[in-house]
Amino acid sequence: MSTAVKETWNHNWIDGRQAASSATLEVFDPSNGQEIGRIPDLESERVTEAVDAASAAFPEWSVLPAQARAAFLEEWASLLVREKKTLGELLSREQGKPLTEATGEIEGTAAIIRWYAEESKRAYGEIIPASNPGQQLLVYREPVGPVALITPMNFPAATVARKVAPALAAGCTVVLKPAETTAMTAIAMFGYLQQTGIPRGVANLVTGVPSRIGAQLMADFRIRKLSFTGSTQVGKTLMAQAAVTVKRVSLELGGNSPVIVFPDADLDKAAAQIVGNKFENCGQVCNGINLAYVHRDVHEALLGKLLPLVRNLKAGAGSEPGTDIGPLINDRALAKVERLVNDAVAKGAKVLTGGERPSGEAYAGGSFYLPTLLDGVTSEMDLTREEIFGPVLPILVFDTESEVVKRANATRYGLAAYVFTSDFARIHRLIQKLESGNIAVNGTSLAYAQAPFGGIKESGVGREGGRHGLEEFSVLKYVALTTG
């Protein structure tokens, strides 16, 4: 790739202008390990400039009518749809997911932005019945202030939209720090946002060493809220740092999401849905299935349906026609998956398909791992306690409903859970008993723009999506007004 192309996204966005740095970070194509671009490793002084810009722009942006803010979001979404082919190719190249998935993510990103453009017009306050004559009790909903947004690598467009769109819609100004491995997609998206004519300083983007930038943003008292998606370990660190200046936080963290298949389930539907969920984005999905609990009575039958589906998944570069599953994001992620599978096999798990890196020239230099189905998995294996975040589906057997609920809840995580059953009474029992922020019944789709998404326990704080996601970026101001 030419130097000119590599430098295309080697800038940040501060105060409506491109911002560069003498220090840079390399971006690699995970399908072959080759450098495809560079991004700034921004100096602390420039990060401060981004906060300066967001702080200066906040007073004017926060009082702009909701319809005016919505117009900028609507135009941004239209530009992303217009450029979805270019953006999809960029996203696929730096993240690794198949081109069809990448292009679909851009379309979904635009839909999220449009939803919040509309929802911005419905940030209602309240009038409370007063206790005294000549008095009114009023509750105003106001934007929290300049906010810091930190996004992960697995959905480099959609997670940007799920944070930036509601923040801007609520009247906040933003400083976005995207994942350094997939920042070019966010940089390109912000370029189109600037093309809408949005006021300078409203939307800023910085890149660099995550721990340094994160700590700096958390230490700045002018940043009034953090919204972070990533690992539980990093989330805890940021939460502690945010406490120093009492920032509000929204954290979407790790998961250990179970799927539970009962004997009365539609096994064909369950198998197709489970494989679709588990192997999307090479298993790098925060609410992706981590463990499959299958009732003993249908264990062999479900395996018979899962195995051909998993075997038929084609691993390859995202740009290759027919690719179902791309590479993991980097060698570190690959090493973790290998460690977890090797530990499971050493402790008695059986590899039904996959369980290794693919061989051949087409995979040379890439961080590929074959779609893997494991049977005979037990709770002593590390992958039952750690988030796999890779293309591995472990099968565990259970006998009773009470047993599987206890096992599914025996984790410090609580992000998502999936249930397949036709028993209406059981559905309602499990909704009440499963310790999870999100539950899908007889399906595996959870992320919708209009619905609140988030975890409990060590899977997070707060919600993204729906009106709840907009409210996360607002504060309440109560006024007791005496008029007589």
UniProtKB/TrEMBL annotation:
Q: Which Pfam families match?
A: Aldedh
Q: Give the EC number.
A: 1.2.1.-
What keywords sit in the KW lines?
A: Oxidoreductase
Out of the domains of life, which is the source?
Bacteria
The enzyme class is oxidoreductase
The record's GO molecular-function terms, alphabetically, read: oxidoreductase activity
In this chain the Aldehyde dehydrogenase domain maps to: 21-479
Q: Does Oxidoreductase show up as a keyword for this record? A: yes
Q: Active site at which residues?
A: 252
PROSITE patterns hit by this protein: ALDEHYDE_DEHYDR_CYS (PS00070), ALDEHYDE_DEHYDR_GLU (PS00687)
Q: What does the similarity note say?
A: Belongs to the aldehyde dehydrogenase family.
PANTHER family according to UniProt = SUCCINATE-SEMIALDEHYDE DEHYDROGENASE, MITOCHONDRIAL (PTHR43353)
Q: What is this protein called?
A: NAD-dependent succinate-semialdehyde dehydrogenase
